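Posting this for the archive.
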Amino acid sequence: MTHENTTEFSPKTYARVAGFLYLLIIICGLFSELYVRSSLIVTGNATLTATNIMANDGLFRIGFISDLMMLLCDIALAVVFYALLKPVNQTLALGAALSRMAMDATLGINLLNHFFALILLGGAEYLTAFDSNQIHALVSLFLDAHGTGYAIGLTFFAFHCIVLSYLFYRSDYFPKALGVLLAFASVSYLVDCFAIFLFPGYETADYPFIMLPALIAEVSLCLWLLLKGVRTQPSQKLHSNESAHQTTGTSNQAG
């Protein structure tokens, strides 16, 4: 005889785990982007960028690892959100999880562009076919490609945010304001990403107000999950509604 042991965590536990994962994601993401890449990459100066990376090789590698950790936490967060929100609408919760994982897959592959900079500056024998100026130019090319790849990944995240906003708005666990903030975050990400694709020379740093709604939404969500968890106990209203629909459906079939 086979005994199947299953452990179902409470919504409050899922929320706390989600908050902790979100905090790690924010810390790792900000460290890699704002502390590592922004401090080492000099826009329009390939030689100085290459010099900074070679002088801070360890920091640049830690930034790569930090991004990897961010993505691992993000995959786990997608699963937790699915478990937490599937009582609201299982199909949409699955769509939110898949779109977030699509972003993670895109950003994971895109990290190759980050690491190619290290390979090019690593002094491998086959690189003697290029002079230093060519190598520096290639480093900047791959770093630019990394930025574009990041924008592609965030378009998937924008879709995730709009689906998540609906689920949060409909859920009894969270205040509707969080759903509204996530909707604004989705628009914020889309505007920023499309601007990168449509307008050569556009830099997010030059228009920080565009990303302000996204920052407010994600920090608010992280703090709510960490400090409040869920607003109610497991949504009996949702489960009772599901049971009512199932009962009605069964009665109709019997009739």
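The chain has a mean pLDDT of 88. Residues 11-234 form one domain.
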